Amino acid sequence: MANPYGQCTAGSVAEACSYMYGYAKAYDDANIRGISNPAAYLWWLDAETGNSWSTSTAANRADLEGMAAYFASIGARTGLYSSKTQWTQIVGTVPSSSNLYARPGWLAGVNSLALAKRKCSDAPLTAGGTVTITQYMSAGFDSDHSCI
Hints:
The protein is 32% helix and 22% strand. A hairpin with a 2-residue loop joins strand 4 and strand 5. The chain contains 4 helices and 5 strands. The protein has a single domain, classed as TIM Barrel (Alpha-Beta Barrel), CATH 3.20.20.
């Protein structure tokens, strides 16, 4: 497969290896987890500070781009899940040349349905994307509101 960041050098955590890591993890998710017909699903790429990430936003973006590339290669769709604050910290600004640019977004981070409804009009995680779902806490559980 083509890597837009070039050749991955063993031991590196730069963009080329991060892209390959993301591609491989998406392959694992689709192929070794017992999911029949993984292409039929919309896969949400989760960017939360509670997970482990590089200190490099460019490497993190490459990781997610690799995941999106693998899912696209099997005909599956991907979306982006995060809060705007966490997304900015982990991924930073996504250029229009990125395969993440026009993805649907699932925004987290509020504590009421009323606020979740208002978040539907917030800026998406990437400038080319759209907010399609918002998440809020209700009775101690995560709940979701469709923006479409």
